Amino acid sequence: MGKETSNHEIEDVESILKSLGVDVENGLTESEATRRIQSYGLNAIPEAKKHGILQIFLDQLKEPLILVLVVIGIIYFLIGTPFESFTVIIIVFAVIVIEVYNVKKAQISIQALHSMVTPKTWVLRNGSLLEKSTSVLVPGDIVYLRTGDMVPADGIVVSSSGLYIDESLVTGESYPVNKVSFDEPETKPGANMHRVVSGTLVVQGNGKFAVTSTGLKTEIGKISESVKNHKDIPTPLEKSLNKTARLLIVIAVFFSALIPLIGYVHGDPLDQMILMGLSMAFATVPEEIPILITITLAIGAYSLSKKKAIVKGLTAAQTLGSVTVIATDKTGTITENAMKVNHILVGEKLYEAAQKGNTSFLKSAVLATGNLEIEQKFSEGYKDPMEVAILKYAINSGLDIHELESEYLITGRFGFDSNIKRASYVYSGHDGYVAYTSGAPEVVLSRCTSIMMDESSNKVKSESDLKIIRDAINEVAKVGERTIAFAYKRINGQAEERDFVDSDMIFIGMISFIDPPGKGVKNAVKLCQNAGIRVIMLTGDYPVTAETIGKMVGIKNAESTLTGDQIRAMPDDELSKAIEKTSIFARITHDQKLRIVKALQKNGEIVAVTGDGANDASALRAAEIGISMGKRGTEVAKEASDIVLEDDNFHTIAEAVFEGRKMQYTLKKGIRYYIAVKISLILILLVPILLIIPFPFMPIQIIIMEMFMDVGALWGFLKERDEPGILHAAPQKRGADFMDRPMIISILTSALGVFLAVTFIYLYIYYSEGDIIQAQTAAFATWILSQVILAQNLRTEREPVSQRPFFSNWVILSWGLIVVGALIVITVFPPLHAIIDTSTIEYRNWVLIIIVSVLSSSWIELRKIIISKRKKNSPRLSQQ
């Protein structure tokens, strides 16, 4: 007799069902279900609390940068002119509105991700089967399951008819698990066969279960709750820019207090000096840095969404460009996850699948996998890829499945057990009882004593036979094929003891499958590696198969493999060293994936990791960039990840990283320009303080520059096309500062050029002509023109702008023309002179202003031209 579930185990389950008041025949009443919802809550994972627009607006007012601007706006309103006050208020309000919009948009995006969950299930209430929202399930409900259903809660199986559930997204086990009623004497007694878990998928059969846990009390709910407690760590970009912003704020506050004090000592009107100090603070407070970052990343995120990568948060978009390692799954990400029969081994002879299969062999293969109800399986959306591949191949090879169904009746099932890696089925047919087994080749071989040579003869297994078979198995495994072997034996009557059924068997043969690399994956891997990004593969598959797939897609060091068993035996320090030269990790578990991520981080890498299962959540959270699969990923994985791939393809991961790289370069250009302009303004206003002369700008002029100059130029940078070679530059290592030394030098030299141009024009006209208004207007014009030319020169980092088509960036060109046009209007149109404190600039001064403005940053373009010519003349440099 078979090994049955013990009475003690049955009593434990029965006591749970009794405590929940389970009625298998009628289910709960609606009134009782409603009462239990009040007690247990809805069967849903609560989302993070979302603030309304008003609360978001108030939260923005608490930000230090915004607070400074609000205080300045209030003071301007009290002592400034109506025009000045209105201008300041408009700018402050615009900054806050943009931030509110971005926060709200992010909330909507997250909500859209949650809406991907299937909301309905069939539940027994008041003796009737009703379709209900999964959110209203409560402990004690009886829920029906069919092929293709997602299990909506945790529970205990009370009825099963060939019920198989894919639990890979929770346990990591790739084979479906047979689920049986808690009181049924089946193959493997124990809670794992009697219980179902929320979020898993029914791939075969049907049944019903009693709900025992819902919402946060489910296994997935517990994982989700731990994920929500994770706190985001500021990115290197945020840390660097926050440090820079604090420095600029200190400088702004210092000079805004110093200017009125010096003016008061010199006898200047106190209110004018206060406004000048506030204007200085208003122009130098870096309130637009968050806007620049947000706009850049929002545009990048939108671009990624068009490429089927949904970015859940802008923090992830910041980090994408810094990724140094992509740790990717194999199945469905590197490969298509579409199994096809590629070779068959009949006895000791290996054939290509194109030669069509041996009918007798294929009959055995279909019976060994327990799949006769072909039409029903396909119509119900059967999911097991290898078994579907066998069925399709058998039909295409001429096997009559319907005839097979009429000849054989399943009388016993011993479902796949991950511990022993095999499954067995017992049939009754016209020629008596026969048992078939399928599973891992080495396991099936170990259960056999004979080998089938043809339909009528067998021979006793020998070591030489085993070598031939193992060589054939290794041959197909080396080309990336997965394998499943089959065996049979005839028995007297229906057997219930598994060890008897699948022992002393006759080896039939093997089928191998290929899961080919996805379209474009090989090229994407090459692009990543050329860009200095290391690609490693993490898989539960066999080492040989993993290595072969790695080589097929061009992963460097694909011949270097670590297995889960090897990793388990390694201390963390040893793993960190071994991981530096290893690209393929095979037969690994979810906890080992987390160890690999942490080892990479310890080595200074910035890691992007993929995952689709609930148990991947910890690795997805630990990595700088967690990437989940939109098609097959669990909601827990999606919640834990930073990016969701709509197509589950590695090519999309590469596209996302490259888009992140582009975003970083755009940010660098924008921030370089923005901070250079701020520093130059501080230096320009410092000279009059030292020389005890009037300031070159009036408060209203500074406000106008703040309103129209920075944002327009920054928007132009966003529209600049990519530069050649950007993707080939090595990514920054962990700990590298966004504001590195080359960038700081570039900012300071750019600021110095603008400062010298404006100061020269102002002092020259002030001392040579003695006309303070003319000198201030000329300085204002030089300031505007110098910024326009600086922005043009900073559009590219390596490629000379002069080598690009004139209309290659219509945004920055239009902005420059509008700014210059506005400058001409306010200097030649008398009615505006009184409002903006300007005058008509004399012709000779215009000539000088244009020459000096062009020279202020022309060295930037000249440097790029020289380097470009050197690279053309030097093959070595041209490769950099």
Automatic annotation (TrEMBL):
Cell location: Membrane
Transmembrane regions: 61-79, 85-103, 247-267, 273-302, 671-693, 699-718, 743-767, 773-794, 806-831, 843-862
Gene Ontology molecular function terms on file: ATP binding; ATP hydrolysis activity; P-type sodium:potassium-exchanging transporter activity
GO biological process: intracellular potassium ion homeostasis; intracellular sodium ion homeostasis; potassium ion import across plasma membrane; proton transmembrane transport; sodium ion export across plasma membrane
Membrane-topology annotation of the record: Multi-pass membrane protein
Assigned keywords, A-Z: ATP-binding, Membrane, Nucleotide-binding, Translocase, Transmembrane, Transmembrane helix
Domain (Cation-transporting P-type ATPase N-terminal): residue spans on this chain: 7-81
Gene3D superfamilies from the UniProt entry: Calcium-transporting ATPase, cytoplasmic domain N, Calcium-transporting ATPase, cytoplasmic transduction domain A, Calcium-transporting ATPase, transmembrane domain, HAD superfamily/HAD-like
GO CC, alphabetical: plasma membrane
PANTHER family, A to Z: P-TYPE ATPASE, SODIUM/POTASSIUM-TRANSPORTING ATPASE SUBUNIT ALPHA
Name the record gives this protein: Cation-transporting P-type ATPase N-terminal domain-containing protein
Species annotation: Ferroplasma acidarmanus Fer1
